[in-house]
Amino acid sequence: MSTGTTQRVCFQLQVDPARLDEYRERHAAVQPDMLRAIEASGRRNYSLFLREDGLLIGYYEVDDDDAAQAALANDPRTAPWEAEMAEFFVALDGGRPDQGAPRIPEVFHLEDQLAALDAPGEPAASDPADRHAGTETPAPGAAAGHAASVTTRTESSEQ
């Protein structure tokens, strides 16, 4: 179900540094059933970024993250993959990576701010002080006329 807003979700996990090569290898060609389950959940534009010390940053877009999380949790295609992947992560307390990954709050989105600048009826002030005089400032990442829906779960995964 599309609500007209896109949630941009960023998360972090810590991969065991001793298993980085295996993790990369497993993600070079993810099981087709898992790919289809992710797609069916509504997640799109999904990427993972892995640093040499094991820091993993993930990003995806979705219309309803709670619904996508529930779809993945209830899809029988995901449990075996998630159980296998859980072994790669440290400080996850045995949970499923797709459910337990701490979210990183969004603080800036270029397209939303550009849309706010170009919105009809918005003053195009060249002086930053003029831009805010007598008007409410939209929340970071919010475009004029619609609120950016961004997941802001902030669980901690201190290593």
Explain this structure.
By secondary structure, the chain is α+β, with helices and mostly antiparallel strands. Helix content is 35%, strand content 18%. Strands 1, 2, 3, 4 and 5 form a five-stranded mixed beta sheet that branches. β2 and β3 form a beta hairpin. α2 runs antiparallel to α3.
Quick summary:
The chain has helices at residues 20-28, 32-41, 65-74, 78-86, 97-100, 110-118, 128-132, and strands at 7-15, 44-50, 55-62, 89-90, 149-150. The protein is α+β, with helices and mostly antiparallel strands.
Q: How far is it from the N-terminal to the C-terminal residue, by CA?
A: 37 Å
Largest sheet: 5 strands, mixed
Low-pLDDT segments = 127-159
Rg, Å, rounded: 19 Å
Structural class: alpha+beta
The chain-level mean pLDDT equals 78
Strand content: 15-25%
Tell me the number of strands. Answer: 5
**Shape summary:** globular
Q: Count every helix, treating DSSP H or I runs of 4 or more residues as helices.
A: 7
Order of helices and strands: EHHEEHHEHHHE
What's the layout of helices and strands?
Elements: E1 7-15, H1 20-28, H2 32-41, E2 44-50, E3 55-62, H3 65-74, H4 78-86, E4 89-90, H5 97-100, H6 110-118, H7 128-132, E5 149-150
Parallel strand pairs: 1-5
Antiparallel strand pairs: 1-3, 1-4, 2-3
Question: What are the main properties of this structure?
Answer:
five-stranded mixed sheet, alpha+beta, 159 residues, 5 strands
